[in-house]
Amino acid sequence: MSTAVAPKGLEGIVATTSSICWIDGDAGVLSYRGIDIHQLAERSTFEETTFLLWNGTLPTSGELATFTQHLADAREIHPDVLAFLHNLPKTASPMEVLRTAVSLLSIYDADEKLTTHEANIRKSFRLTAQIPMIVAIFDRIRKGKPVIDADKSLSHAANFLWMLNGEEPSATATRALDIALILHADHELNASTFAARVIAATLSDLHSAITGAIGALKGPLHGGANEATMHLLYAIEAAGADPVEYVRQMFAAKKKISGFGHRVYHTEDPRATHLRRMSEELGTAAGNTKWFDMSRKIETFVKAEKKLNANVDFYSASTYTTLGIDIDLFTPIFAISRISGWAAHVIEQHDDNRLIRPRADYTGPAYPAPLTPIESR
Amino acid sequence: MSTAVAPKGLEGIVATTSSICWIDGDAGVLSYRGIDIHQLAERSTFEETTFLLWNGTLPTSGELATFTQHLADAREIHPDVLAFLHNLPKTASPMEVLRTAVSLLSIYDADEKLTTHEANIRKSFRLTAQIPMIVAIFDRIRKGKPVIDADKSLSHAANFLWMLNGEEPSATATRALDIALILHADHELNASTFAARVIAATLSDLHSAITGAIGALKGPLHGGANEATMHLLYAIEAAGADPVEYVRQMFAAKKKISGFGHRVYHTEDPRATHLRRMSEELGTAAGNTKWFDMSRKIETFVKAEKKLNANVDFYSASTYTTLGIDIDLFTPIFAISRISGWAAHVIEQHDDNRLIRPRADYTGPAYPAPLTPIESR
User: Nearest residue on chain A to B210, judged by CA atoms?
Assistant: First the structure.
């Protein structure tokens, strides 16, 4: 048996081919199907970007209209799943609820037993439409508010804000969320996407893969970083402290700051550029740039002190907070976006599959170790 | 950025160190913590083997008694989870139910927010005790039979058979299942275990990792192989065909036979040795060696014709069927066993963690592709 030892965490190991996402970590480039993320953030929508991720090319206006309609039409939650959400403890974390509800959805999915390209696309429409609904519905249930019906005439981003808040969102808020969804839609073989592909590669179903991806995203080293950033901003405010002094003391105490640095980018994370701008614009529009100003000071200090760049998570914290979104919904919103990329990767995996099954370098007791009789141990 | 391209499916790539399981695919050796699987199958129990997997050493008799008691004491299903199982469609597949129920269990787990070694052990006891209960309870619910309470005085294997069938199992049946659970308990970085480690490596929780692992095991390239073997045996019986002729015609039609060959073993899968023996012994004890005889003929033919060895799945099909277990419970029983190994791997991953995040080799449209205005597409 010939084996090759990879660096820990498979860092720098090419685990598969993929035509979905291209990243140049040194140049700070992120692109979907070859199209630069800056172009998409400035000129596309989440619906168009999702079409691009799933189909490989941009839609014509007719294709985009059909795609948008299919996605809106899929805004239906099975009554048993709705009842399930009502019966949960109100204290359940939104990510646990989302992971469980997505797993439950497969039981009611007409295509559950199929893993064909066409069935995967149909399931992807349903999951992409219903994941934001689950997040919004459970948030209202836990707060004792009435559940809001989906509005199929609204855009994907606007319908989520509508179902979350029960009021028609402003154009500014809708566009800010739409851009955030575009920016987070895919990122090559990040841990949750890789988990989805490992699961899909057993020829298991899309719901299994997405359930696993949500579980991976839940971890603080992945989806949890912007929550940690916001907790830091709140802690600084509660202490009435100077942000730079506060962070300086954290560094002196050997503490890490969330939202800086990235395994792949060695320059500015291109997504951070847009989130910084949105954080400032939303703050200005709301007449409250407190979180943006605090973030900017921390960013400048960390860059000077540690040569670390802000990543996608750093400014999404102040952006989402300024949009009035609770801190424990940050990671679910990441999932609301990333489902489009997860689905694209599962479809690609199933279209040309091979089981993903690496080896381990054994470091335990030498073989054959004795099975000593229990009375002699 | 330096990258190294791995073979497809990460075949032969060492993705991590691990002290849990050592396999020599050329020599046909499988060992847990250095102890040969044949020793364990002949002289250990599932409880003792699970202690070994989690702790790295064999227990003293006092340690084993405490461990066994902890595992039995954890045979308690939260009433909300029991109600959830009662409310599911009776047609739901057992693996979807198990995946969803394990995800749901975390919402009721007192240690949900913790990923310490101690908390992981406590959660592992609960999941190992409750996964078989969920499988047995849902099987009885879907068949319209009353749910059987756990018997904490029984062994792990016996309690499962008791809760499944509502009658005290024979010593032969209990020992056969116990051995099957030992044989399936771990297998290094198989796809479901690797999925669990990828999820755990974001510092997500044990339930997230196990939920993902169940999703991976559900795939026909992983847990589903013994189901396919049994469907083949049933098809041969229904056709009144000669097993060898039937398989010969399948080969002529370029069809694959499940239960043969293995990514890692190039000789006999050491687990197959025991399952072959159990299949024969259980058949003889039941006065019906039909499935064993048919399996043996197919094995001999496939070995001669294709140089392929029977793997762990091939004889587990006839073994489980002779134990009176339904075909769609084969993969759940795999999970009932593998939870012990999954838990060991998640604990090991969390004890010395690094995010698992490989790269992809991009094969899509060249960057920068234009974002052509929609009216010009």
Answer: A212
